[in-house]
Amino acid sequence: MAALSAETPDKVEVLPLIEKALSWDLGGADLPAVGAALDIARQLAAYGRVVAEGLHVQCRSIPADSDARLGARATLGEANARLYLKPLAATTTPRYAAARAQNLARMVQALNRATARVGEEQAPTTP
Length: 127
Fold this sequence. Notes:
Elements: H1 11-23, H2 34-59, H3 67-83, H4 94-122
Helix pairs in contact: 1-2, 1-4, 2-3, 2-4, 3-4
C-alpha cells in the first residue's frame, strides 16, 4: 500500500468524515458550507486513492476467479472513475459539494469492504 502523506488522513481520521458526509440531507436546507464539503471530499479522495492502490496490489495475491477478486476489481473500476474527478470549484453550490463528498464517502466505504474481503481471502485457513 502506498504511504499516507502528511496531507492524507489515515483510516481513524477518515471514518468520522464518512459519517459526517453521509449524515447530510441533500434535500434539506441545512447543508454544509461549500468549503467544508469540498475539504472533506478532497480528504476522502486522497485516502481513497491510497486504499485503491493497496487493494490493487492485494488482488494479485488471490486467485483471479475468486469472488473477492472479481468484486474488488469492479470496485476499483468505479473508484478509478470517482477518485480522479476534477475537484469542484469553490463557486459550486452547497448541494453539489455535499453530493460529491457523499459519493466519495460511499466509494471509500466500498474500498474498505473490498479490502477486508480480499484480506479474508488471503488469510491462511486452519484445518
